[in-house]
Inverse folding.
């Protein structure tokens, strides 16, 4: 069982949270100028790293806020959690 | 005769330490025609078909751990070909047909048991989806038949009969040719047959980097030294993104942990494979008598080869809903494999964006059933440089063009 330190609610159990993908992920635009390759990269292609990853999570059964998690995909260790508005946490590969 | 009752008795005298090895463990040569990275089912099958179908025998299979120790040894051993789209039907049914002749072809008993698989529908809407699915199967030339509720209960008498069941069973879709096979034997059988054709299977040999010559990849650096080859095939499932990263490109792959569980062994209680559309739980009974149970993914990326408790609880709750009588069984083992999930749950069998590298990935949660077919078409791609006629749709380009083969929604893949 993972436990996340929600920046708004404090420490809660894994079933309250929902994973929301790697960050940063910037939607390209304006749409009419975006190539097929750039759309595909935005929609489907990911780093999918083995080790530390920076990702967005939703406290779905809590405050319903999105926040940023730095997590290790091998050990499942949660290194830090922060608000979206906080400075982007550094991740060393 | 290498294996017989007499050989068993003779080897008992030497405490079973003198059995001949099923494959050599050679030192890697400096150069091959093809390197296959990944000594799981897909990698070994690819090497075997390269040697057997295409006469390419200077092949190395590089495995970072031990042979078949990844997802090949971590699945629920189910084989089936009941997919929705014609492209998938062609590929997965090729795989099932190859499975049907595999023990004979390899001279190694993979213990294929075509005991049938029933997908359970729990509502009017799910029955409609099942009949649409059955029609697609029949149009694609794959066997599939709808079962009434009474017929399902004949096959699965222990199903929940309660009138207050949360997910009452209303009917099912049966593929009689589906079933289970012995997962380790599939890896060992391919390994022995490939080795006999001259393929070098090199274990404990991790690829750490790729060698480049201008815009081309011409070899790999490994923990056992540098090995060169003009063609390098990646068949590394959940680690595809890791190797792609070393080669300098990205993939539309996300790696998740998929758990499976085994109960203590009991006498025969379940004669076919069963999958519930409502709960996503699937199970079969192994020849040893254990119930082999699987269900949902742990829904966040993981390379951990182990899952977490909430998913286990969800799967077990679904199992209890379907078969309340199994509530007394104790779970013996739990494990997870790292699966390479793509958006449409269809594989990628294609040249990589970097010259000299080829991809066999994206099988996601369904790689085991696809081992013979995946290896067959991947060997064709590696040997000829062109996709096999049954694999032309399974490109990397489909994520750009939008021509997805969306089994994720069509074939009721719950994850």
């Amino acid at each position: 069982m993972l436990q996340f330190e929600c920046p708004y609610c404090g420490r809660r159990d894994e079933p309250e949270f929902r994973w929301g993908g790697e960050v940063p992920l910037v939607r390209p635009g304006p749409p009419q100028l975006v190539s097929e390759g750039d759309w595909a990269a935005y929609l489907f292609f990911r780093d999918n790293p083995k080790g530390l990853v920076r990702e967005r999570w939703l406290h779905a059964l809590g405050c319903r806020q999105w926040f940023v998690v730095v997590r290790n995909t091998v050990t499942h260790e949660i290194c830090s959690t922060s608000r979206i508005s906080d400075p982007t946490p550094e991740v060393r590969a | 005769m290498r294996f017989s009752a007499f050989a068993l008795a003779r080897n008992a005298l030497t405490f079973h330490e003198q059995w001949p090895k099923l494959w050599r463990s050679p030192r890697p040569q400096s150069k091959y025609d093809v390197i296959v990275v990944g000594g799981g089912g897909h990698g070994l099958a690819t090497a075997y078909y390269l040697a057997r179908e295409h006469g390419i025998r200077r092949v190395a299979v590089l495995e970072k751990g031990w042979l078949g120790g990844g997802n090949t040894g971590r699945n629920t051993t189910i084989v089936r070909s009941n997919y929705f789209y014609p492209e998938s039907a062609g590929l997965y049914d090729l795989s099932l047909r190859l499975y049907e002749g595999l023990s004979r072809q390899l001279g190694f008993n993979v213990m294929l048991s075509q005991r049938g698989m029933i997908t359970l529908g729990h509502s009017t809407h799910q029955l409609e989806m099942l009949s649409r699915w059955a029609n697609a199967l029949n149009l694609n030339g794959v066997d599939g038949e709808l079962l009434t509720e009474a017929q399902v209960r004949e096959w699965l008498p222990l199903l929940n009969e309660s009138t207050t069941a949360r997910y009452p069973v209303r009917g099912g879709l049966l593929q009689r040719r589906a079933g289970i096979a012995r997962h380790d034997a599939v890896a060992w059988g391919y390994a022995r047959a490939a080795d006999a054709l001259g393929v070098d299977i090199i274990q404990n040999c991790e690829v750490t980097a790729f060698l480049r010559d201008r815009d081309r990849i011409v070899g790999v650096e490994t923990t056992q030294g540098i090995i060169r080859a003009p063609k390098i095939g990646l068949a590394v499932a959940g680690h595809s993104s890791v190797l792609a990263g070393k080669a300098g490109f990205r993939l539309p792959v996300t790696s998740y942990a998929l758990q499976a569980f085994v109960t203590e062994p009991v006498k025969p209680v379940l004669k076919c494979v069963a999958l519930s559309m409502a709960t996503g739980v699937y199970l079969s009974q192994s020849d040893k008598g254990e119930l082999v149970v699987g269900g949902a993914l742990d829904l966040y990326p993981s390379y951990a080869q182990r899952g977490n408790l909430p998913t286990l609880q969800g799967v077990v709750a679904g199992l209890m809903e379907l078969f309340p009588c199994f509530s007394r069984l104790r779970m013996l083992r739990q494990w997870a494999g790292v699966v390479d999930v793509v958006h449409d749950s269809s594989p990628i069998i294609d040249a990589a964006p970097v010259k000299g590298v080829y991809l066999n990935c994206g099988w996601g949660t369904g790689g085991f059933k696809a081992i013979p077919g995946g290896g067959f078409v991947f060997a064709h791609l590696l040997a000829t440089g062109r996709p096999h006629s049954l694999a032309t749709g399974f490109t990397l380009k489909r994520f750009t063009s939008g021509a997805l083969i969306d089994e994720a929604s069509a074939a009721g893949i719950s994850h």
User: Anything to note?
Assistant: Strands of chain A lie at 3-6, 10-13, 18-22, 52-58, 66-72, 78-83.
